[in-house]
# Entry
Amino acid sequence: MTKKAQASMKPGLSMRHVLCFGWKLVILVSVALCVFAFLRIQQYSQSTAALPRKSRSLSYDFNGNPKIAFLFLVRRHLPLDFLWESFFENVDRANFSIYIHSEPRFVFDESTTRSAIFFDRQLRNNIKVAWGEASMIQAERILFEEALQDPANQRFILLSDSCVPLYNFSYIYNYLMGSPRSFVDSFLDKKDVRYNPKMSPVIPKQKWRKGSQWVTLIRRHAEEVVDDEIVFPIFKKFCKRRPPVDASKGRKNLKLQKQHNCIPDEHYVQTLLAMKDLETELERRTVTYTVWNQSTTNMDNGGWHPFTFSYADAGSEQIKRIKDINHVYYETEYRTEWCSNNSTSVPCFLFARKFSEGAAMRLLSQGVVGNFDVSALLEAPP
# Structure
């Protein structure tokens, strides 16, 4: 072979070498990225403050009398305790449990509540909770964890200190026990500004959901929430509310207001169950009614806050309108959720918030919850 012919072959050999090297580099980088993602997931699953695990029975085959666990997430006391006392009056204790997460060291006794049914129902391992912080969902997880210790608890209702029942106990019990699904308000976030890209790859963007904090879970889904050691740490690290405008910080506010504004309790359960591919096991709606009013006084100058029902807003006609609602429309998904239970049309809502003490008194006086002598509330507390 001549030198000229040999020279003509060298460029071809060089090109094949380059292509071969390029493919090897692509494969190496891909493997490295996979390893990085795996290590990142392991890091967050091991480094965080997940709830301490307690032994509990996996009661999928529980054959006793099922109970509803009422989980009250409150600031301090229960201002509507008198209404709930009427609600639980004459109800078999074998059908329900009560758990309260209040501020640390607050005790429910004769000096803090009129209703003996709440005596000593506060959790001992409660934490300080701040609105818009991960502590809110941590408190929820503590409530679910405590309630799961009783294998009879098969439905778990998360309630606030301003929630009221719209029906009697028997109706609510049959409604929830008659459905094998959880009730979780869950939809796509239209503005899509709360998802922090730093959550990836642990929380994929396509699994990001938004919805009401006030969920009702079946036991298996409550266990998923409590046993989660991957999603919660990411929320704690990357889902934080934007700090309020502080006049003393001047121009620094411009930088602060560019931060992600993420409210953990409006996303956590929804996103977790979506990531677990459990959405087919949900009624994707809440059973707790809320009216939202737009406020111009908060840090965003355009946020939404729940409307508080006063005595004047709690008449029989207003309550009937809530109880007659049979569907919910989700604009971001062009989805109408017709409220049903085992293919039977039912009212959408079993509870409502936020109700003042006056509004709760009116509900009792007109027999929405039960027979009650409102004048008893005017007597001096013990």
